[in-house]
């Protein structure tokens, strides 16, 4: 089962598939390899059960980013569906991170 804070090493890929989720997830990303003024995207697919759980970004390369959600705040999941979270990660010229979140639901 997967729950709580999860560290995702981007050296292992940028698409993460989660099933057997038993609680809200906070994703902490490491090894983005981003120089200033560059960006990348990370996709987290969550197969939800009867109880839906949320997915949020905690840290990016140990820094707390500014997180902006499309349309509304939060990453609430949808029961018995597959939720896909696309995290557009931007690093500015001062080394600060901004994450734009797009949440899709399938099924």
What order do the helices and strands come in, and which of them pair?
Blueprint: E1 2-9, E2 15-18, E3 21-30, E4 38-47, E5 55-60, E6 66-69, E7 82-91, E8 97-106
Parallel strand pairs: 1-3, 2-4, 3-5, 6-8
Antiparallel strand pairs: 4-7, 7-8
Q: How would a crystallographer describe the biggest sheet?
A: 5 strands, mixed
How many helices does DSSP assign? Answer: 0
- Mean pLDDT equals 93
**How large is the share of residues in beta strands?**
over 45%
Unreliable segments of 5+ consecutive residues: none
SSE run: EEEEEEEE
Shape: globular
Q: Which structural class do you get from the secondary structure elements? A: mainly beta
How many E-type strands? 8
Spatial order of the strands in the main sheet?
Answer: 2-4-7-8-6
Amino-to-carboxy terminus distance: 22 Å
Helix coverage percent: under 10%
What is the CA-based Rg, rounded? Answer: 13 Å
Walk me through this protein's architecture.
The chain is mainly beta and 107 residues long. Helices cover 0% and strands 58% of the residues. The protein is built from no helices and eight strands. The protein starts with a strand and ends with a strand. The mean pLDDT is 93.
Record keyword descriptors for this entry:
single chain, 107 residues, mainly beta, five-stranded mixed β-sheet, 0% helix, 58% strand, globular
């Amino acid at each position: 089962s997967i729950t709580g804070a999860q560290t995702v090493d981007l050296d292992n890929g940028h698409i993460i598939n989660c099933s057997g989720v038993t609680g809200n997830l906070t994703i902490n990303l490491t090894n983005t390899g981003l120089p200033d003024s560059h960006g990348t995207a990370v996709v987290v697919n969550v197969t939800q059960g009867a109880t839906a759980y949320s997915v949020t970004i905690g840290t990016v390369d140990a820094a707390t980013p500014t997180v902006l959600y499309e349309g509304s705040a939060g990453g609430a999941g949808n029961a018995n569906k597959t939720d896909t979270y696309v995290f557009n990660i931007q690093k500015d010229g001062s080394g600060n991170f901004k994450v734009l979140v797009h949440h899709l639901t399938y099924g």
